[in-house]
Design a protein that fits this description.
With 81 residues, this protein is mostly helical. The protein has a domain of 32 residues. The chain is built from 3 helices and no strands. The mean pLDDT is 78. This is Ammonium transporter.
């Protein structure tokens, strides 16, 4: 057990300089990165719009009254005869 703790402690001591990053590398691509992520978010949002409308229609159909659905169906079928 003592060897395991000693090994863990030595790994933490050796890994400490890795965590001390100075930030020497700096690039100016922040605007491009945020623009790319914004476009990706917009694409995902636009893909979710039809899903939301279908889910809303499904929930509305499940919880609506049966008589109202029969009236709508009768109106729709007689409209196109």
């Amino acid at each position: 057990m003592k060897k395991v703790l000693s090994a863990a402690f030595s790994m933490m001591v050796l890994a400490t300089p890795v965590l001390a990053e100075t930030g020497a590398r700096e690039d100016s691509s922040n605007v491009l990165v945020w623009a790319f992520l914004g476009i990706c978010g917009l694409i995902i949002f636009l893909q979710m719009v039809p899903v939301a409308t279908l889910a809303f229609g499904l929930i509305k159909g499940v919880f609506s009254k049966k008589e109202a659905m029969e009236d709508e169906l009768e109106t729709a079928t007689s409209k196109y005869r």
